[in-house]
What we know:
Layout: E1 2-5, E2 33-43, H1 45-56, E3 66-72, E4 83-84, E5 90-91, E6 115-122, E7 125-139, E8 142-151, E9 155-165, E10 170-181, H2 184-188, H3 190-208
Amino acid sequence: MRRQNFTDDTVDYAAVGATQAPDLMQYPPQNSLPAEDAWRIGSGEDRFVAAGELLLSWAPLRAGELSITDVRPASNAGYSGVGFDAEGTPVAPSRLEADQRFAADGTPFVSPGASVHLHGKVDGHRADAELRVISVFEEPRRVGFILGTVGHSIVSGEELFSLEWRENDEVWFVVRAFDRPTAPTYRLFPGRVRRRRRALFTRYLRAISPLYSS
């Protein structure tokens, strides 16, 4: 098992790790709108491994009209960051090292503390944000990461992307998030935030699963 985490005061929200809380949908961080969904994307170890490679090579953020630039791994490859238990509660830090991996186009894989610039369009509106990887987990039957906003976005918050190879051999893609509107129009019309989130979830799913590529 490999688990790495990173957090510092550069993210622009306080509830770091809250996407792992079991009661996220009932008790989201203050002034935030929670969202979660899960999809069965196949079965078996091969499907799990292939989807995991896509996930950790930033596929969800390179789907549809979205793209990423300026992927910067953490300057210190051995971060000793805050970890999270299964309930989303911070636990004692641990220092873990791992070799940096790269996607076929040379983009560094997701890694703790890495930052990335997201741009494109979501629901017909411009997307432009700086994001930071809070946590990365690679376990025998669960792979994923947590991504938090640093700034320059219309919302402030966090996303959790997770692939689960369950005991019944099914592979599930799970996304959880909370968004606090920061742009004036989104604060006035929270329905726009929800539409934006649904559009993002659709793009993420199409990027990870060939079953939903059309």
